[in-house]
Specification:
It contains 8 helices and 4 strands. With 161 residues, the protein is mainly alpha-helical.
């Protein structure tokens, strides 16, 4: 999603992740939102960017996801709901990381599994970890793949001996 949004406009990504700055004014001792008629050109431009970010998110989502977030008024609010839906709160996210780290640590090539199947399974684990904020270096991943290979391999049949 980050690539999709930033390829259109990097400022939209900042609005999605940080939120727009709602134009405000001082009213006595309180700070209150300005009405749209009171916005200056810069404030209008920022709010237009928020609307563009919302539109971009709408276009990227299926109908079910759209229904989940259609009442949101800010791109950041949409993004926060999608994060919770797909990643969960911090506790759920940490549990997912723990499960994937465990899978990484115990990773071994399965009997009758081809190298491409093994690598696809390994990539799913490491991509899942990276999407949750946990990543390994290329060196660590290479060592893990090499250690997970069988000691004897029949290259003609691609089967563990």
């Amino acid at each position: 999603m980050r690539i999709f949004v930033t390829s259109n406009d990097y400022d939209l990504w900042k609005i999605i992740t940080k939120g727009p700055t709602i134009p405000t004014k001082k009213s006595g001792d309180l700070i209150v939102p300005k009405s749209e008629d009171e916005w200056d050109e810069a404030e209008k431009a920022k709010m237009e960017k928020n609307a563009r970010a919302i539109n971009l998110l709408y276009c990227a989502l299926c109908t079910n996801e759209y229904n989940r977030i259609s009442a949101c008024e800010a791109a950041k609010e949409i993004w926060d709901k999608l994060e919770i839906a797909y990643e969960g709160n911090n506790q759920v996210k940490q549990s997912k990381i723990d499960i994937l780290v465990h899978s990484f640590e115990l990773f071994k090539m399965q009997p009758n599994e081809s190298i491409s199947q093994m690598f696809a399974r390994f990539t799913n684990i490491t991509n899942g970890l990276k999407s949750l904020g946990k990543s390994y270096t290329e060196s660590e991943m290479t060592r893990k793949i090499l250690r997970s290979m069988p000691t004897k391999w029949d290259t003609t049949t691609s089967i563990i001996l």
